[in-house]
Amino acid sequence: MDPHFKPSKLVMISVLLALSSLQNWANAKPSNSTNAKPSNSTKINHTDSTNANQTNSTNAKPEVPCYFIFGDSLSDNGNNNNLKTLAKVNYPPYGVDFPGGPTGSYMPPFAQAVGKGKEMLNGVNYASGSAGILDETGKYNMGDRIPLNEQILKNHKAVISSITKEMRYDLSATKKLLNKCIYSIEIGSNDFINNYFLPKFYDSSRRYSLSAYTTMLVQQLSRQLMVLYDNGARKFAVFGVPPIGCTPNAISLYGTNGSPCVDILNQAAVLFNERLQQLIREFNRTLIKAKFTYLNPPGAPVDIAEFVKIGACCKTGGGAGELCVRNSKPCSDPKKHIFWDGVHITEYQMEIMAKNAYSSNSTLCASPYNIHNLAML
């Protein structure tokens, strides 16, 4: 991961940290480039998660041979760096606490993995900041991004071809490998905050009621997950949408009418997550060769209401108003904040979520499996 690798938004970074025990990345070598750019994933503290992975996972026994990541800025570790987009963070104060520059990437972003067959055997990160389930999401207000369809239908299929070649075109061996990998899907937030609730740029709110829109999103996601299944995926870790109405950016943009958070945005997240959990249960019932688990997004609104009042750790206004202002000075103690910037939580919060996603036995964190148990299946 890059030295400025912004501490990713909410969930994904936590998973990467959680998976430090799940995948032995001891063979990962530090990058030789001092110009590596941060992922458009998010916050400053994501960098610390990287260091934690290095420290804790070097001697860990692999629980899975590979890990494929699909999603948005919660997961993006560099795929947006060369795109014409507002959704990237390759500038200070992102990465401000990175000791000495690039540490190397445990899992290459797709943009760097192309043509490197052996690296792809360990997995690839396809995630792209501002990407959504829908192809149009993020396009008209953020710029270039890699939608989930492209991540799956184009990029992942290209990687499978490279892996097949690396396996000497042994289709059975390739299938066996792909069956053992974990496939992480963290997507959906942008379909609301960078689509439905931006009528200036998108007409989705005029074409759908909120309920109909969330149903349509989950139906589309269902088709995308089935494409992964048809291409060998059998272990799925699918994240819910976090309380998007509690971000500093949402509160600044929409106001709260006396509530701690923007209620309509959180209602959208709840509707989506309810339908997503129904889909997970249906897949587990009908696709007997596969295992799906739902990972709860961080923090119910009631849990973070007091922290929301404190605001972001950095001065926001960068990107489309969601990110840190370039070269601004961050707060002195990120642990006192939930959010690093306008939309992404701090590394400290990520670490808590990571541990829960990996090992908690509470269905409030993961259902029906935590990531460790999913790996062991």
Automatic annotation (TrEMBL):
Residues 47-59 have a biased composition (Low complexity). Keywords: Hydrolase, Lipid degradation, Lipid metabolism, Secreted, Signal. The lineage of its organism: Eukaryota, Viridiplantae, Streptophyta, Embryophyta, Tracheophyta. One of its GO terms (molecular function) is hydrolase activity, acting on ester bonds. Its main location: secreted. It comes from the Eukaryota. SUPFAM superfamilies: SGNH hydrolase. Belongs to the 'GDSL' lipolytic enzyme family. Residues 27-44 have a biased composition (Polar residues). This is GDSL-like Lipase/Acylhydrolase superfamily protein, putative isoform 2. InterPro entries: GDSL (IPR001087), GDSL_esterase/lipase (IPR051238), SGNH_hydro_sf (IPR036514), SGNH_plant_lipase-like (IPR035669). Residues 27-59 are annotated as: Disordered. One of its GO terms (cellular component) is extracellular region. It is found in: Secreted. GO terms for biological process: lipid catabolic process. Residues 1-28 form the signal peptide.
